[in-house]
Amino acid sequence: MKIGIAGSLESNDCLVTIKESKEFSIKVQSIVDVFYHDQIVELITSVLEDMNIKNVEVTLIDKGALNYTIKARLLTALHRMEANHA
Amino acid sequence: MKNNLGREIFEQSKPYIRSDAFEQEKRRLIAKKTTDESVVFLKSLSEAIDKAGLKDGMTISFHHHLRNGDLVINMVCDAIKKKNIRNITIAASSLFPNHSPLVEYIKDGTITGIVTNYINGPISKVIAEGYLKNPLIMDTHGGRARAIESGDLAIDVAFIATPAVDKDGNGTGKFGPSACGTLGYVIPDLLYAKKTVLVTDYLTDSIVEPELDYHYVDYVCTVEKIGDSEGIVSGTTKITRDPVGRKIARDTVKILESLDLIKEGFSMQTGAGGISLAVVEYVKRIMIQKEIKARFASGGITGQYVDMLEMGLVQNLYDVQCFDLKAARSYRENRHHIGISASKYGNPFEENIVVNDLDFVILGATEVDLDFNVNVTTDSLGTIIGGSGGHADTAHGAKVTIIVTNLLKARLPIIKEKVTCVTTPGEDIDIVVTERGIAINPKRTDLIEILSKTKLPIMPINELMNIAHNIAGIPKKLEINNRPVGYVRYRDGSVIDTLYSVK
């Protein structure tokens, strides 16, 4: 199975796990979930849409990362997923 | 019903008006109790509880000088539970994570009321879940002294953890295996509680200059151990190494220099947060360089201030609470390290209090709003994570009050339209220093005039909030329609805000 992991559980960072999957899903577990859940899901969705990636399961454990951190971790996780497979 | 800050408060409570409203009020004092009879020495808490006449519905008090190493609160509550005494109110100057056994007693109705200045740990969770029967009351350090002396907080029995007691019943925090330094917060309890029990694990022949005078003591109870020394030093923080925190500290010192606040004979207090400690380190360098001596530093005293005292940089330390064992040692040995009571520290009705003599104070914040109100009581969800302690007292007393904080903490903007809970009113907050900019309270035109001539990044506070929003995104507004579980009492006894249950 294709899988890629990036990030950490340090404060202001996040840990992204991305797996190949038949069904598309995004799971977010964040310390700022109450305040930023929708913005985080929207960000992940738009990054994946831009790259035209559909069949993945994304799990994000967030420790208060800013959007550009989340995006960077997500992209690295995607690269690793592809690299692991190759 | 709403108070003057527009905060919803309990019906029929005394609403907060202004931070100086107490000047129009008379000091209220209940009679001090003295005991003519000699102090009775007891061997068990069970006996002490019986002799002191503790019954259902009474209020018992404790101090927090042993901090997270305190064993006495749990011990007394265990003994009370065993006697099946119920409906007790705990008036502790602070509560820490090691007091988690109280959670069960709150749930089973042994404890139905809590009055305190600071809560950290599992007890706040059980209160947020709505288990405490009566509203939680959060005071300031100075406000607690006022509440006790006025009878607003009437104490039936004070159980005072005392590191050393002599044969007459005098007590001190200077000696013994659990020596913790000053016992400033418990002086009002000693003077005004109907019955006083010193709980100790160290008896000595005589104590010179005891903080606790035996004339106010009814019983001394010896137990095996009153504190864990590791937990006693838990109040200490390390100087921040974080470059963001260092920048905030450097800018703060530039402000102090621009305002000419670091000059011969000045006075200061700083919180124990990492950024505050860095500020002190920079101030110390300037003092050495320019050969400036301070008149005093006050507050919870850390080893850092002890160094400054011993280097001759500070003339006196006024200490209501020793934060580490170095401070406790200095308090024992150095005559210029002076213990003060909570009342002398910050009671608005006491004369010549220390906070009123401060040139500046450096404090932290969990949230600051566009009216400069500061929250250090709850997080942004409303869960209690601390409390005023001396925050509101020093902010009112000091000539210049500076808040140091990161603009964002784990994505959350610290500057908000409205704080979740008001601990300290904005009228007493002068400057907010963040890594992205500095906001000055518009009512301090004097400070604005001087600081706008510097290169410091001064901006309106809403601009600071906008910067935070641009970086992190605008946080979704929380709808708090939960039920009230307590309130924050300002130092003058008025109600400044309400505390709510958290889902």
> Averaged pLDDT of chain A, please?
94
Instruction: Determine the number of helices of chain B (DSSP H or I, runs of at least 4 residues).
Output: 15
Strand order of the largest sheet of chain A: 1-2-4-3
Largest beta-sheet details of chain B: 10 strands, mixed
Distance between the termini of chain B: 24 Å
Classification by helices and strands of chain B: alpha/beta
Task: Classify the secondary structure makeup of chain A into a structural class.
Answer: alpha+beta
Distance between the termini of chain A: 11 Å
Helical residue percent of chain A? 40-55%
Strand residue percentage of chain B: 15-25%
**CATH architecture grouping of chain A:** 2-Layer Sandwich
How are the SSEs placed, and which strands pair?
The complex is a heterodimer of chains A (86) and B (503).
Chain A: E1 3-7, E2 14-20, E3 25-30, H1 33-50, E4 56-62, H2 67-85
Parallel strand pairs in A: 3-4
Antiparallel strand pairs in A: 1-2, 2-4
Helix pairs in contact in A: 1-2
Chain B: E1 40-42, H1 45-51, E2 59-62, H2 72-82, E3 88-92, H3 102-107, E4 111-116, H4 122-128, E5 136-138, H5 141-150, E6 157-161, E7 164-166, E8 171-172, H6 187-192, E9 195-200, E10 203-204, E11 219-222, H7 229-232, H8 243-258, E12 266-270, H9 274-290, E13 294-301, H10 303-310, E14 314-322, H11 325-333, E15 337-339, H12 342-346, E16 360-363, E17 367-369, E18 374-375, H13 391-397, E19 400-404, E20 408-409, E21 412-413, E22 415-416, E23 431-433, E24 438-440, H14 445-451, H15 461-472, E25 484-489, E26 495-500
Parallel strand pairs in B: 1-11, 2-3, 2-6, 3-4, 4-5, 5-25, 6-9, 7-10, 9-11, 12-13, 12-16, 13-14, 14-15, 16-19, 17-22, 19-23
Antiparallel strand pairs in B: 7-8, 17-18, 20-21, 23-24, 25-26
Helix pairs in contact in B: 8-9
Kindly list the characteristics that best describe this protein:
heterodimer; A: 86 residues; alpha+beta; Ribosomal Protein S5, domain 2; 4-stranded mixed sheet; globular; B: 503 residues; alpha/beta; Glutaconate Coenzyme A-transferase; 2 domains; 10-stranded mixed sheet; 26 strands; 26% helix
